[in-house]
Amino acid sequence: MTTADSGAVPGDGTPGAPAPAAAPRVVVVMGVAGTGKTTVGPLVADALGVPYAEGDDFHPPANIAKMSSGTPLDDADRAPWLDAIGAWARGRAGRGGVVSCSALKRAYRDRLRAAAPGVVFLHLTGDRELIAGRMAARKGHFMTTRLLDSQFATLEPLGADEAGVAVDVAPAAAVIAERAAAALRSI
Ligand SMILES: Nc1ncnc2c1ncn2[C@@H]1O[C@H](COP(=O)(O)OP(=O)(O)OP(=O)(O)O)[C@@H](O)[C@H]1O
Ligand SMILES: [Mg+2]
Fold it and tell me: Is the CB of residue 134 below 6 angstroms from any atom belonging to ligand 1?
């Protein structure tokens, strides 16, 4: 993860010349299930003035069939899905965009970066109990503790060398989006 003092677009070196505007970011909103990717992602896109794409929409039909039958996806299933998201991200290079994708493992993020080298990550982080409560409210029943536990067990947070920011999801969605957009503008 980078900090506010890195990644800035420098001027062209001509004394007195205005610094060129930074190219719009392509952002992947990541985090465990129920952390608010689908809720916050479009708000971040609006704040940045770029389009939003829902990561779930990139699954090939075989994955949808598998998930519909209650079978968890494995990493081989995820490869074409990640590649489709990566292709979208690459297509937005220089123009900006926001796409949701849990991207829990570094290997998944490596695959996205391989497809779209300039991509940055917005990690929505939150307390397990808070997220479990929101998931229960969304689905109208208690989600299985096991599913959320497995998501947290799988999660590999952004490394120090990964471009991105982490934002806590305790506040209202609009506040999260505002903080996220500000943090993303600063990297
Ligand atoms: N900041 C927030 N404050 C209150 N409720 C929220 C907030 N963010 C999300 N929610 C609610 O939490 C639930 C989960 O959010 P959402 O569906 O956006 O998560 P997600 O990360 O997209 O989950 P999934 O990985 O399952 O797609 C929804 O019911 C949503 O309305
Ligand atoms: Mg979602």
Answer: yes
Q: Which of 56, 138, 151 to mutate to test the pocket of ligand 1 (most atoms within 8 A of CB)?
A: 138
Q: Is 138 in the pocket of ligand 1 (CB under 6 A)?
A: yes
Q: What ranges do the domains of the chain cover?
A: 22-185
Q: What is the architecture, at CATH level 2, of domain 22-185?
A: 3-Layer(aba) Sandwich (3.40)
Q: What are phi and psi of 3, to 5 degrees?
A: -110, 175
Per-residue pLDDT tens for 80-126? 999 999 999 999 999 999 999 999 999 999 999 999 999 999 999 99
* Cβ–Cβ under 8 Å, residues 8 and 79: no
What residue spans of 92-143 are helical by DSSP H? 106-115, 128-139
Q: Could you tell me the two tokens for 100?
A: 């949701």
Q: Using a CB cutoff of 5 Å, list residues around ligand 2, an ion.
A: 37-38
Tens of pLDDT, residues 136-175: 888 665 557 778 999 999 999 999 999 999 999 999 999 9
pTM: 0.90
